[in-house]
Amino acid sequence: MKATPEQIRERFDRDVERFSHLDTGQTSTIDAPLALELIAQAAAATTPHAKALLDIGSGAGNYSLKLLEKLPGLHVTLVDLSRPMLDRARDRVGKQSPHPITTLQGDIRDIALGRSQFDIIVAGGVLHHLREENEWKLVFGKLHASLRPGGSLWIVDFISHSTPAV
Question: What pTM, to 2 d.p., does this model score?
């Protein structure tokens, strides 16, 4: 049984400190620091013209910070269920970005993103919370519509699959 968005929000409200370290990333995932670095390098290499970043499930802002190391002029929009996480992310990312940070508290299924707003979208450890096929279609349709032409979407997540090869 998957957790409800409210249960997820409550858990992350309590875990701000744990998610606020670039050297460990999400400490429950052994490869988190490597994933942060690989995503940042790949996104910067494939989307070097990027001006706007959307960080979904931003937590304390680790992916945004890594991307700002590679692309320092990004306008950053952070989305998370947890207000304490967003506040920490805004503070941390705001120290590295030359632009004001936009924060959107809520569930990605419910947040309006607009069309052609972002050059890079990163979703780190968040999309596994989607439940039904219609939610996957809704969210991916929304993300696709919010990408500018030539933009890129980067997903790092926890998965299990019934196909052994996957």
Answer: 0.79
